[in-house]
Amino acid sequence: MKKFLPLLSFVGLLILNSCQKKIDEFVPDSNSLNAPDTVWQSIITSGMPVVSLKNDLRKQTVLDSFTYNNTGIVFNSGDLSLSISPNTIITPAATTPSGTITRESILLQKKGDYISQGMPTVSNGRLLISGGEFFLGLKNNNSEVTVTPGDSVTVKYSSANLFTGTNVFNATGDIVNGFDWVPNAELSHNKVNITLSGYELIINRLQWVQPAYIFDTTGIPETVFSLKLPSNYTNANSIAYISFNDMQCVADMKGSTGTRTFISGPLPINRPVTIVVISKQAGDYYLGLEQTTTSLPSSGSGTQQIVITPTKTSLAGIKSYLANL
After folding, report:
1. Higher local confidence (pLDDT), 280 or 175
2. How confident is the model at residue 21 (pLDDT cuts 50, 70, 90)?
3. According to the 3-state scheme, what is the secondary structure of the chain?
4. Nearest-CA neighbor of 199 among 285, 108, 80?
5. Lowest-pLDDT range of 38-52, 262-276, 286-300
6. 13-32: average pLDDT
7. Taking residues 31-37, what's their average pLDDT?
8. pTM greater than 0.70 (yes/no)
9. Which residues contact 243 (CB under 8 A, 6 or more apart)?
10. What is the mean pLDDT of residues 200-213?
11. CA-CA-CA-CA torsion for 48, 314, 246, 275, nearest 10 degrees?
12. Are 48 and 55 in contact (CB under 8 A)?
């Protein structure tokens, strides 16, 4: 038996050496590559799941066209009616466009539409009561057409949400970093009129536009939402919004890498709201909802703590919910 011990030891060394090589050459199980990503990002880039999610949710714009020969035209098509007077639109070459003009447009009027498009009704942190958001773009021979400086065009659309005292707001920003709404300061070329069925906007800038007014919070105490999600829901794969149940208003919540939570801006208290969380992880979609009322906490920092655990669903299911919000 003793003479076999050296041989057994030698075989053992060979096995150990073989195992060591396998450890050195270890390739992770492909399933582990889809493990939850718990990293919060200081900068959101176009390749992250949250940007893919936003693109998945966005509504398609409508393309149509008309002929323009600088004689003035009223173009009634789809949801938006467009009136252009002579000499009020211009090409990048500072010439008057002629011939076929392609119009790209979309009209958003539901709170779920604002979430789908990633266009909350907030201006520099202040809530907006919105009469609808629309996109309007014009092209002539593949070149962008704009409104001639000092002039304007007219847009009309039907709406069930008619508010007096609205002004023209224009959007700035992009889908990666988010959008903000800025009041148009050129009041002489921007005006909102209410018709029997909807809105008439006289505007000097195209692209994203809305008639809205800033919700006055003077004398109203305000709170802030802090939203906590499970660890695999981060700002790199999830979005969070606050839909006001009794106002035509949607606010976004921004990811905080320090606290790993989504934080809202100031919110007036005593308002019933629905918190909407949407996430995309490894190709799967998740939706979380919470009904609550904005209020001041009885103690602490003045921040209202919210905890939501989203559930797995489908992209179609999320779109169906937003279409009815």
Report:
1. 280
2. very low
3. CHHHHHHHHHHHHHHHHHHHHHHHCCCCCHHHHHCCCCCCCCCCCCCCHHHHHHHHHCCCCEEEEEEECCCCEEEEECCEEEEECCCCEECCCCCCCCEEEEEEEEEECCHHHHHHHCCCCEECCEEEEECCEEEEEEEECCEEEEECCCCCEEEEEECCCCCCCCEEEEEEEECCCEEEEEECCCHHHCEEEECCCEEEEEECCCEEEEEEEECCCCCCCEEEEEEECCCCCCCCCEEEEEEECCCCCEEEEEEECCCCEEECCCEECCCEEEEEEEEEECCEEEEEEEEEECCCCCCCCCEEEEECCCEEECHHHHHHHHHCC
4. 80
5. 286-300
6. 36
7. 49
8. yes
9. 111, 112, 115, 249, 250, 273, 274, 275, 276, 325
10. 98
11. -50
12. no
How many residues are there in the chain?
Answer: 325
- As a whole number of angstroms, the distance between CA 102 and CA 124 comes to 33
For the CA atoms of 245, 134, 180, 229, what is the dihedral angle to 10 degrees?
40
State the pLDDT at residue 300. Answer: 66
Share of the chain above pLDDT 70, in %: 88
Q: Which domains does the chain have, with CATH numbers?
A: 49-53+219-323 (2.60.40), 58-214 (2.60.220)
Give me 178's structure tokens.
């988010």
CA–CA distance, 130 with 165 (Å, rounded to integer)? 11
Contact 116, 179 (CB under 8 A): no
CB atoms within 10 A of CB 38: 13
Average pLDDT rounded to a whole number, residues 266-294: 97
